[in-house]
């Protein structure tokens, strides 16, 4: 099978039917190969707390892998892991961080970096959307709140439990923070979520 970068079907998406173009646009242009520009980057990784530090560590050949030495990890068959070099709680407001699962905290840090890197453009809320893929969602919250319910009763479960554990929690949190009203989407298909997460925003931009 040949690969064509403009062929969405290669990534598992069926081709959309041909539709007439919008007023002022040639037919098919909105679903064609109109270029989409990435003008802002953000990340927080085991190698660095932002794009620059992560890239510099990569160029230097640094390894972020460490050994888990906490008591809870002693019986694990594999105790190697890549920990974040900077905890999200070091960047986020304390109250804000408490209302988000760890995965949402990470997403928020990266999203704000990307927006700042793009020059913090003024965008109408109705034209600003968020797409953040995930393989699971707030797994830490799910486990913690389940244990809390069993040991101290359901009345002690956090009122933010659902918004913290749902798969679209990261997209929802970021969209609320950025006042993005054009959509908050969360492709969820295990490790393949990244593919959808790259394609979904591009197709959304092409659709105008």
What does it look like?
The protein starts with about 50 loop residues before the first helix and ends with a helix. By secondary structure, it is mainly α. About 35% of the residues lie in helices and about 5% in strands. It has a two-stranded antiparallel ribbon with strand order 1-2. A two-stranded parallel sheet has the order 3-4. Helix 3 (about 100-115) packs across helix 6. The chain has helices spanning about 50-60, 95-100, 100-115, 140-150, 160-165, 170-180, 195-205, and strands spanning about 65, 80, 130, 185.
Provide a quick synopsis of the model:
The protein is mainly α. Helix content is 36%, strand content 5%.
Helix/strand-derived category reads: mainly alpha
Q: How do the SSEs run, as a string of H and E?
A: HEEHHEHHHEH
Q: Major beta sheet, specifics?
A: 2 strands, antiparallel
Number of helices: 7
Roughly what is the average pLDDT, rounded to an integer? 86
The Cα radius of gyration reads 20 Å
Helical content stands at 25-40%
Low-confidence stretches: 1-13
